[in-house]
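Example 3.2
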Amino acid sequence: MEAASATGVLGHLGLLEVQARSRKTQPQQRSRVKELKAKVEALRIQRDQLKAEMETHKNLQKLRASMDKQCTNEEEEEEMDEESENSQLLRLMARHTQLKDLLHAHHVIGGYNIMKTRQGKAVCVSLATAYEGVFLETFNLEIDLKTMRIIRHNIPPYIPLNSLAEQSNLQTNLRTFLDTLSQHLNAFSGRKQQLKLVKELHKSVEVMESNVLCSILVLMFTVPREKTAVLCTLDYTDHTRCLPTRVHFDSEDKALPDSPEWKNNCSLLMETPVHKALIAMRKMKNIV
């Protein structure tokens, strides 16, 4: 009787253990099922989003092509109602991506303004010049995209455009070419602006000579005390800069150019824009 009783107890305990395990397993299985269902739902949502993006991208490509050609395809208009909110949104998105592409191109060529010409077969690049924060002239050149050759331009003939183009490979170094050309144009405009300011601000200084490139400037000064005339030649041999590379004085007073006072004037003219240097020389009473 005792053995049978012990067996019954052990059997009962075993049954309870099995039931306990079963109760633990069922929540785990239910949790796993919920997790898998959630994953399936997330994948479905992702699939639907990808389908929507593909459709949007397809429509954007159609709209971009239509904008680039600057014409409207009647069949595409039938497929997409212009008055619908979706159509308007897509058009805004297409315009946004188009502007992003233009900004990227703008950055690639160094921030120069560009515009498509000849139905997209060429581009017109605008190079604005400025001096001391004042915008001056704007120059333009049109480049054929197939041959990468300059078709038309309004660059002054005394700027070595062809030489600069030959030195740079426009196929691979367009930005380098534009940067170098911009340096020449800005320096030329800066020198021309300095000459203009000299004439406006310094009536007592006589401009004896200058050339079209403003690379040579000859001025006549008058020394206050002796009333001696001094001929000053400014030579701008580096055409990418607004400052002279050589300053030379001629005077009846042969000792004057070698005096400390005029050596200082020479350094001032080489390191400072000429119209500003003349203001300083007048304040020091070196010239009238």
